[in-house]
Amino acid sequence: MQLHISPSMRSITISSNNGFTDLMKIKVAARHISYRTLLHTILIVAFLLPFVFILTALVTLEGANKCSSFGTLSFNLLSHLVLLCPDCFGRRFGPRFLGRVDDSGKLVRDFYKIFNQVITEEIPDGLKLPDSFSQLVAELKNNQYDAKTFAFSLRAMVLSCYIKIVTLNLLYSSLMEKLEREIRESKVSELMNRHFAASSIPKGIHCFSLRLTDEYSSNAYARRQLPSPELLPVLSNNSYHHFVLSTDNILAASVVVTSVVRSSLDPEKVVFHVITDKKTYAGMHSWFALNPVASIIVEVKGIHQFDWLTRENVPVLEAIERHHDFRNYYHGNHIAGANLSNTTPRSFASKLQARSPKYISLLNHLRIYLPELFPDLDKVVFLDDDVVIQRDLSPLWEIDLQGKVNGAIETCKGEDEWVMSKYFKNYFNFSHPLIAKHLDPDECAWAYGMNIFDLHAWRKTNIRETYHFWLKENLKSNLTMWKLGTLPPALIAFKGHVHPIDPSWHMLGLGYQRKINIENVKRAAVIHYNGQSKPWLEIGFDHLRPFWTKYVNYSNDFVRNCHILES
């Protein structure tokens, strides 16, 4: 008997030794076969081999090629082969095996009786089994078995083979479960480490901020007014192009401002409003006071310097920052209570990103208060601190928003499933009754990071009140209405107030997509490192970092002395 597996793995053929006939031929579909599928196939074939060998023995003994039968999966069904093919068994087993005349009917009944008897009896303890099926066939040729001994031997060999197959399958399943569990735990550990790395402050950047803060207290020039008194009227002049940046990252702020200036065709018309928190204000002010950017006007203000930002005006955000469940959600144990066995690594990564501590920072919610913070301005471009500007943005002020408030790129019209295939269903929990009642899961989402806001039109809406309402509802619902930071409540608040702009203005995904088209990066007006792999972190992507680092002044004493991004 021969077992032949084709080189392409598309067929398995079992044939007799004398080549008369193919006893079994298994064809496999023309597709890739996993190792698990291949192993299961081999185990099934191995289980069928005992029955195939019996048929082979019959062919070998008689040399006939006209009779064939099909092996079954149990010894009980094997016994029925006698009844299914009486002519074959009668002619082949009669004279030589049972020592009787060719009485096929009686032979069949006797053989069937023997098989039934063997099924119900215990296998003799001293029964010596052949070492292989070849030996069984050889001994059968030499008439070393009577019918009952042969039946016992066959039953014992089948049972032994079955036990081995079951044992191997259990061992294989146990091994695969262990390997899958270890792989999943390793992946989760990696994702947790990346989450902590993304949420931490690199030593160099921390040094950078501390040194600049110290400079503010010891250097009068670092405390000089920004901008100078004669330029203060420009801060509310709508003939200029006003950019707003809200951040506590001094180095990132310097890159954003520098990239805008270098890309601008008319930098004299650029005004930057940099907003930061109280702890970073001194360092941020020192940097722009000591390193003035040619041709543009920069204003640095702390949240504490805005009279409008009081507890009365932002009660919801005050509650968010102080609420125990909120703080535990963003700062607590991210694995506790998570069913990792039913969570894919990609889903877990998404949940970790949604639980970044930055989402409960007032700086991250600040854009919803732009009309109140800048009451004299009509239109501004709001930039995140993880963007780089590569093209002149002045045409944004010429876009007709058609009465809408927010000019943004839509993120549902593209082939990239990570970035440009986002709908409301990707952000909201539509099993929540309030969400299901008020939102459409197939509505297109849009992006934060680079937005042109018409503040004049905004003041005529109730966007801020809507934003506060949904934050309160999510708080009441124990944070179950959405899963990702500040964008979901904004998607609701700006519903009906968004004007889509050309996608070439804003390219997303440089903070979590390693495989990205570099030519597309070069062509984009604004590139956005949204995601965990920020360019100022060690986990940033090396091939994408140069687009950001080329705007870092490495000759500056503060940058050099703090060894920022040194390899």
Highlighted features:
567 residues; alpha/beta; Spore Coat Polysaccharide Biosynthesis Protein SpsA, Chain A; 2 domains; 3-stranded antiparallel sheet; 22 helices; elongated
Explained architecture:
Keywords: Cell wall biogenesis/degradation, Glycosyltransferase, Golgi apparatus, Membrane, Transferase, Transmembrane, Transmembrane helix. With 567 residues, the chain is of the alpha/beta class. It has two domains: 125-199; 203-562, Spore Coat Polysaccharide Biosynthesis Protein SpsA, Chain A, CATH 3.90.550.10. It has 22 helices and twelve strands. The strands form three sheets. Strands 6-5-4-7-10-9-11 form a seven-stranded mixed β-sheet. Strand 2 and strand 3 form a beta hairpin.
How many strand elements? Answer: 12
* N→C terminal distance: 65 Å
Basic shape: elongated
- Give the count of helical stretches: 22
By CATH, the architecture of the largest domain is named Alpha-Beta Complex
Largest sheet: 7 strands, mixed
Could you report the average pLDDT, rounded to the nearest whole number? 79
**CATH superfamily of the largest domain, called what?**
Spore Coat Polysaccharide Biosynthesis Protein SpsA, Chain A
User: Which secondary-structure class do the elements indicate?
Assistant: alpha/beta
How many domains make up the 3D coordinates?
Answer: 2
Portion in beta strands: 5-15%
Approximately how much helix is present in the residues? 40-55%
Rg over CA atoms, rounded to whole Å, is: 38 Å
The top level CATH class name of the largest domain: Alpha Beta
